[in-house]
Amino acid sequence: MSNRVVRSIFRVGWPRTRQQRLRAMLSSLVLHVHPTRVRVHVLRPSYTLGLGLVSFYLFLILTVTGLALMLYYVPHPAAAYRSMKDIEYAVTFGMFLRNAHRWAAHGMVAVVFLHMCRVFFTGSYKPPRELNWVVGVVLLLLTLALSFTGYLLPWDQLAFWAITVGTAIVAYFPVLGPQVRYLLLGGHEIGQAALLRFYVLHCLILPLAMAFLVALHFWRVRKDGGLSAPPDRLHRRVPAWPHLVFREVLVLIAVLVLVHAAALLFDAPLEEIADATRTPNPAKAPWYFLGLQELVGYGAIFGGVVVPTALVLALLVLPYLDTHPRGVGVWFAPERRVANAVFAVVAVAVVAVTIVGTFFRGPNWAWVWPW
Amino acid sequence: MTPGGLGHGVSRRLLLASAGLSLALLATVVWAVVKEARVEWRVWQGRYAALESAELATGSAEDGSRGLQQFWLPDLDRVDRCTSCHLGIADPGRMDAPQPFRTHPGRWLETHRPDRYGCTSCHGGQGEATSYRGAAHRPVPYWPEPMASRELMEARCGTCHKERRPRGTDWLARGRALMVDRNCTACHEVPGHDAAEVRSPRLDGLPIKVGPAWVRGWLKKPKGYLPKSRMGDFRLAERDVEALAAFVLPPRGKLALDAVELSKADTEKGGEVFRRSRCVTCHEINGRGGTLAPALTHVGAKASREWLYSWIRGPHRFQPKTLMPRFRLTDEEARDLAAYLSYEFGDTPEGFEGSDAPPSPALAGEGRSIFEKRGCYSCHELEGFPTLARIAPKLLAIGDRVLEPAPLVARGTLPTLPNWLFTKVSGPEQVLESARMPTFGFAEDEAAAVTVALLSLRARETPPARTTRDPVRPPYEPQGEFGALVRRYRCLSCHTIGGSGHVTSTGLPLSTVALDRIGSQLTRDHLERFIGQPYGVRVALPERMPHLNIAPEEARVLAGYLSTVMVDDALEGAVPSDAATVARGKELFDRHGCAGCHIVGNSGGYVGPDLNGGGARLKPGWTVAWLLEPERWKRGTLEPDRGLTKPEAEALAAYALSLPARKAKAVGR
Fold first, then answer.
1. Which of A73, A123, A268, A343 has the most CB atoms within 10 Å of its CB?
2. How many C-beta atoms surround the C-beta of residue B390 within 10 A?
3. At B117, phi and psi to the nearest 5?
4. How far is Cα B258 from Cα B439, in angstroms, rounded to an integer?
5. pLDDT digit string (tens) for B75-95?
6. Nearest Cβ partner for A93 among B22, B24, B36
7. Per-residue pLDDT tens for B242-260?
């Protein structure tokens, strides 16, 4: 009897034969995103570092913790801060949930950036993977947008003024900038309308877009012939079950362990309630936009509009400019010396300017030594 | 080795890694659960349960978790979870329990029920928190409302209790009274303080009163002339003093002094007038006497005899708002008194011996701009100037002011708001060298009281239903013959009627006798006699009614009005005067030891009024009401409330009213 129940759910039993292993991938909704067989090359941790997978897991963790937090958080300026305090002090595991959500969010921004670097340095954007790279860039922007929209929700001084700075930079964009800012804020100031919009963006619109694009991203990986590999390693394959699936589970456990540990060791900050009349000095954007804020310090249009737009456009058109098939599947292939060098310099510059904005800028954006 | 079902291909290394990671995951999950189970409020509840079960001696190991406790007060916009740990706070049986389980001290929770007020509305702190640190028992970052220390709790009382003298708050009441006394609202807009309360002399008449030497000395240091001066020290430079004197001294031509033949003055007779009139009730001499009016210790060095004569004859011409009555003296008496004052109190104080040369008129323009810049006209009226110069920041929400960067405070103290306010009030120049605010020379306790009063001015609006205020009363301005007499003799400088009347720097009127229902308290004959000749009813009092020399027909008008209008129908009534009741009264008098404070016959205490001849003075209904509830009629009275029943009070009243007048020489005349 129970056998029939189990069989009705799992049409292929626990795989024991090779054929069962192959069919397992095809018979499960979750598993069928995998190919039946994968290249051995891509299983090596030193090749992909599992970064894409980690990003995805972080997104799942964020979704789960986010849904739990949605049960308690109230997106109205008069109630938001108090609901944060309730989560922190009254809800069982509330602080843990909040910490997990915040550290997973910061982690995801960093990991997504690193994933992009990995993909570039292994030349995995070249044809036929151009569209997937573009989707990836959009996913990066969505990740930043999700983090940014979520940043406002606690409605404390940190949140309020970070979003003030961020939306002010948006307004620098010629012609459309102020309109976009108005659209984001639902007005000219950060208030009830802005909070509600950010909440809906953060919990509904952006996650749906993200989910769709992630699905597309995975589907494209399959359709583009799997993860990239050098020409001499294209054909050695092993069954996805257990080799790929097992490793994926390990990475999941590792990510969970790290997120848990971070949530238990470090508390997410909550400053005093947002006060539009008191500006902290300095008022800093979220850390991933601090590089932008630093550049804005050199010139509003240059730093706030020209450089970021140029970077994003460059990323988007990259795979259509560099179509030379050589150097795919290995890190820092010698044939791609120039491209790798340029990207590395830009990536390091982005990180450096972010570090400067985080640690070396104090009141009035004056230079300070962090020690 | 092939692990079950996974088949070949999963290396040993990977299996070890998976084992390790799985254990790590389990560890973090267990860690999270344990951390939550041992969160601070649960721990305290466990300890409380242990305390309870130890008492019950049942030994039952109850889990003891009552769950999170909170008071949610939407109208105060507060959520207070303090009782999650402070479990015994409302339990009278926990007075000896260790903290945090101890009962709340005093009877505060009876009048401020936690389910209506929470905890943080009085104590401050973060009510939403469930940990010691989070609750801001000590100041924590990012929570701007730390818990008030015991010393500063009164400031928090003042957030809801906006009246001038809230019950049970010594510091707050004193601070609020001092702020009125020093005219703070003249420069700073103080919530709850009316501009009409600003009280300082007009300067129109200054040129005919004083000379340059005095003005120079005074502007340099007011306390050199008046040790208890209300005017602060404006820390003026030499040149500014000169300029101000140049501006303020030239005659303005409106007022003139009365002509008087001073050669005929008799200072000895003047001294008699001085003593008879009891000027020291209001004016202190050499530190002894009242502080309602300026000290007269050096008045002869300040004002001319002609001016003194003119002033005594008619003070209201020169200062329409002065508290001083127009005594009924003959011109000769006034002349003698002026001469006496000038002669007896003519020593020049230190700092006032400077040159009497008039200042250069060229400086008058500069003086005028200093007069404007320092806001002198805000306190001192002068024709041609507006009434108020709010040159200083508003004090609305000063108690919530966030000082960034760290404020300047006195050396060795923490840079907190209370310390900053205390430093500033004690000496504004300590905070900002170029401050325009004068140094008032507050004693430490005075400065502390003002600090408490300032801290009670908060931004957060309390709902009107939770706020208490002094009732708004239209000022009492009597009319007609009675009104003219009240104005001439300035009854309201010392007495209050309907809440109107001068209030001193202590927050209380000078006389403890409010006149609201005096007609029901004292007999008409006594009132008439007393008004004409205010002898000492309570001889131990330092402040006794001055002898204004009110004419008999004037006293009749005043007593008549007071007896017919200033009555309280609820106090009318008689007491039985039969011998049995009187005897009972005497028995009660002896039993309660009333003679400890009151004189009967030839013996008794000096604390309360002499009760001889009580029937001629007191009215029966009032006496009974007084004995039943003295605190109700006179807050802070020394008369004890013995918990008398009505018959007992009536008996005591009957006894007191039956006492004959003393036959021996009157005391205190």
1. A123
2. 14
3. -120, -10
4. 37
5. 999 999 999 999 999 999 899
6. B36
7. 999 999 999 887 788 998 8
